[in-house]
Amino acid sequence: MKYGIKAFCWLLFFFLSIYLGMSTISLRLIAQNALDQERDQALAAHKSAALLFAAMIEDNEPTTEQWQQLGNTVQHTANNPFEIIDQEGQQLYHSDPLYSGLATHLNQEDLVKNTIQVSEIIELNEQKSLLLQSQIGGSPYIFISTQQLVRYPETLKQGTDFFRILLLVLQLILIPISLFLTNLITKPIRQLIEQATNIANGQTTKPFKVKRRGDEVDDLAISLNQMAKKMNQDLRQIRKEKEKQELFVSSLTHEIATPLTSIIGYAQMLQWEELSDSSTECVDYILSESFRLKQMSEDILRLLHSQKHELQCTAIAASQLETYLAAFIGGLDQAIALDLDLQQATVYMDLNLFKVVAANIVANAVEAMATPKELSITGRIDNDRYFITFKDNGRGIPADQIEKVTDAFFTSDLTRNEGHLGIGLSLVQNIVSLHDGEVTIISKKGAGTSMTIDFALNEVNV
């Protein structure tokens, strides 16, 4: 989950938690106030009825008929159902058959003289009620009355409904507020992420501007700017050093080329003369090494040129590539059994550079193959790219060298006696990268090599 979503959820949860806490407390206070009012009302009614009974009983012990008369008299003034019991719990009178047996809900042993005991809220006849009990004056009789709660449940229901509606309204208000606060919190973080991404993509010259906040985000922004500044300085220094190296190599290569041409020319002139066998052998060696050195110089210049080359891409038909490859490989070595199958498409590429790529890949394949020489070249379309695969039956590449073969100046011949400088596949890598493609090598020692390169399709095919 993204940080912004987490921040939004936490803010909304925080606000709703505060609301739920405050609404619960408020609802409890409102309901308790209603309950206290009804309890006071019940106490007043109970006390009044108990005093009336005490006045009428005096010191007598009423009979059953007298209790009936006394009860009926008090019932006219009392609004709440009640009953009278003696100390043994025997019911002497009840005003309402529906509320008979109220004493079973109370404990008479806990009753204190001259006090009115009020029960917790109980359910009587599916209604919330309070039970009250007290002794009638100094007599051994106990007066029990009930108070049906009306205002308390109504207040509780009305308060609950009100806070539920208020919760829905608050959600409509809190959601945009939480979104606003989330955006306010995450905006500098998103800016930092954007700046870090720019730095990762090499854009180190543009400083990151952030409002002075005096917090950790401000410190992180300053650190990013310092890092970008240092990276920019290092990159400039690296580019300068690289330019110096390329200039040195290019100048050295050009300086070598001029005397090398003279050496080759004079050596060829010596071949026309009548020389002894030992002298002829020396001249031949001079020529072979001179040509090898010339080839190395040309390879270095070609590699340097490819790194700065501006592509001149055009739409090239696959059939045109097929014709070129067949003619090139046929002229290179007629002993190669060529299997050429390119899916028809129009490829967007620099044809001259493709020829350099193909020449280097095929040259490596030819060198790696023994008799019989088998080479297959296939082309296919996949995800708006055109993939060309060169597969030979040569000696293969050791697994530990596959990732290194496209590095400049890498060669499996550590003595370099074969005359290779290790530039060919590096040149292939550079040219394919200029086309936004990749070089994929699959090889196993003794089982041949498969090399795949890819180019963009022309927009007509997309």
Automatic annotation (TrEMBL):
Record field: catalytic activity: ATP + protein L-histidine = ADP + protein N-phospho-L-histidine
EC number: 2.7.13.3
A GO cellular-component term linked to this record: plasma membrane
Residue stretches making up the HAMP domain: 183-236
Keyword Protease applies: no
SMART domains (alphabetical): HAMP, HATPase_c, HisKA
Transmembrane regions listed in the UniProt entry: 162-185
The keyword Transmembrane appears for this protein: yes
Enzyme class: transferase
Alphabetical UniProt keywords: ATP-binding, Cell membrane, Kinase, Membrane, Nucleotide-binding, Phosphoprotein, Transferase, Transmembrane, Transmembrane helix, Two-component regulatory system
GO MF entries: ATP binding; phosphorelay sensor kinase activity
Domain Histidine kinase: 251-459
Alphabetized Pfam families for the sequence: HAMP, HATPase_c, HisKA
Topological type in the membrane: Multi-pass membrane protein
InterPro entries: HAMP_dom, HATPase_C_sf, HATPase_dom, His_kinase_dom, HisK_dim/P_dom, HisK_dim/P_sf, HssS/ArlS-like, Sig_transdc_His_kin-like_C
Protein name (record): histidine kinase
